[in-house]
Amino acid sequence: MKQIDTKKEIEKITRFLRDIFQKTGINRSVIAWSGGIDSTVSLYLLSKVLPVENITVLHLPYEKSFAEDFLAIKSKLKISDSSFSVIPIKPMVDYIQKELQIDNDLRRGNVMARVRMVTLFDTAKKLPALVCGTENKTEDLLGYFTRFGDQASDIEPIRHLYKTEVYEIAKTLEVPTTFLTRQPSAGLWQNQTDEGEFGFTYKEADEVLFRYFDRSIPIGDIEKEGFANAAKIVELARKNSFKHEVPYSV
Questions:
Q1: Is 234 domain-assigned?
Q2: Rounded CA gap, 48 and 56, in Å?
Q3: Which of 37, 101, 123, 222 could form a disulfide linkage to 230, CB 3.0–4.6 angstroms apart?
């Protein structure tokens, strides 16, 4: 993986965000804070561009909440109580699950992501504000997102960064250690983790995806470098590539 200059990258992202807010004439943003590294870094970046009173942070847990962990962020960024809300999505998700007779974790997880999307965009409409997404490049390339759910947003400040690069940005932003050491999870079911679902680590995925997509190195050559899961990683990206093409139209 190439080494990024984190300070220059932060400057680049903040310029991008300022340009978007100026272009749209909207100077407020809504962000779903999950308790993970991506949403935390995205929030820190937003706070460099907008007054914190113009940022609405929604924590949307299904069962496990990380609201207590937000206290450190709240203190660091000087976010007021009125700007942070915890909205449990369990009642909405359970109602939909019952009505649609959903009987597996994956379908229910998609409902969770889409309920969060509805909550974010409705809040944004009310304010008005732009919805800030929190997707990284690794998730994007692997198709590790719910269409019209966690992928839906108005702005994406870190979608061009691989997961491991997001961690580097986080260190420069002095994000609390809690978020640097937490296992990445979409919280879609009990004990669910991203890497557990993948069957490989983000670190390996980033190295393989960078070589394959950024450098156009053949899978066989990547495997020779010692990346045993190279074919598996690229196959997952290929399998989910349709997500970048829908909706299909004439």
A1: no
A2: 14
A3: 222
Q: Count the domains in the chain.
A: 1
d(CA 58, CA 56): 7
Residues contacting 30, CB < 8 A, separation 6+: 55, 56, 57, 58, 120, 123, 124, 127, 129, 130, 131, 132
| DSSP one-letter code for 155 | B
CATH of the domain at 153: 3.40.50.620
CA 51 from chain centre, in angstroms, equals 22
Residue segments in the chain with a per-residue pLDDT below the cut of 70: 186-189
Amino acid at 232: K
Q: Per-residue pLDDT tens for 185-231?
A: 766 667 778 888 888 999 999 999 999 999 999 999 999 999 999 99
Whether 235 is covered by a domain: the verdict is no
